[in-house]
Design goal:
Blueprint (H helix, E strand, L loop, with lengths): L2 H9 L11 H6 L4 H24 L4 H17 L13 H19 L15 H9 L8 H27 L3 H7 L11 H7 L4 H24 L8 H13 L2
Helix pairs in contact: 1-10, 3-4, 3-6, 3-7, 7-8, 7-10, 7-11, 9-10
Length: 247
């Protein structure tokens, strides 16, 4: 096998589809098939930041779970995000604001015992509560908890997408060995790892470079799906970076 062939097998696909279907646009037009698929993806991948926000606001486990479940059911019905439009900006901010309005309505109506007519979403609340128990004990506001968990959910989503690409190309073991380099470690034993993966050290370094680039591309793409204007991508990237480094 040549180095060129080795690098291709290590790095996975070199081409990938780019979508401009943002969640903001999806929320504005919930009748479209693509919109519902996008919003279901949102529910499955970004419910925990909202759950953590509600728990930090003092809601007990059962009520926080009920409110999160019902809110996303309303989202899929287009009953809360139907006001979304390009000028609304970042989906992250709009989503939290919508949740606050929803919670206020629920408190006023005292309907917490009747949740969505029996319709349920497959949200992993048991794992969510385990995650919440591991949150640092400090005076962070619910909003700051939401922001940090949102940022970490974005990172998790991007890593999962990257892993899926390697799986699709029959190289899941390569991803498991190389993912440590996404953390920016420069003292990793390249030579030893290259021997284990039966490639050259030079080919391995190129593969790591391509992996990091693909990671950055997917990260930008994920962010682009949560803002209404491409011009907002850079500021959202800076915001998430600040959230993740915040003391």
């Amino acid at each position: 096998m040549t180095n060129g062939q080795t690098m291709h097998t290590l790095t996975g696909p070199s081409q990938f589809p780019t979508t401009r279907w943002t969640l903001v646009i999806a929320a504005a037009d919930p009748q479209r098939k693509e919109a519902r698929a996008a919003l279901i993806s949102l529910c499955e991948n970004y419910w925990y930041p909202l759950y953590a926000y509600l728990r930090r606001r003092g809601y007990p486990v059962d009520q926080a779970q009920d409110l999160t479940q019902e809110f996303f059911i309303r989202v899929l019905e287009g009953r809360y995000l139907d006001r979304a439009a390009p000028e609304k900006g970042r989906f992250r901010s709009f989503l939290l604001t919508s949740l606050k309005f929803f919670v206020a309505d629920e408190e006023d109506r005292q309907r917490a015992h009747k949740r969505g007519g029996g319709a349920l979403l497959p949200l992993e609340f048991s794992s969510g509560e385990d995650r919440y128990r591991r949150e640092p004990v400090h005076d962070e506001t619910p909003e700051r908890i939401f922001e940090r968990r949102w940022a970490l959910s974005v990172l998790d989503r991007v890593v999962e997408k990257l892993r899926d690409e390697f799986v699709q190309h029959g190289r899941p073991e390569h991803f498991e060995r190389l993912k440590v380099f996404l953390l920016g470690k420069s003292d990793a034993p390249y030579a030893a790892l290259a021997r284990e993966m039966k490639t050259s050290e030079g080919a391995l370094k190129v593969a790591i470079h391509r992996l990091r680039k693909r990671y950055r591309d997917l990260f930008r793409q994920e962010i682009a799906d949560t803002v209404a204007d491409p011009a907002q991508v850079e500021s959202e990237l800076r915001f998430l970076a600040d959230v993740l480094t915040r003391k």
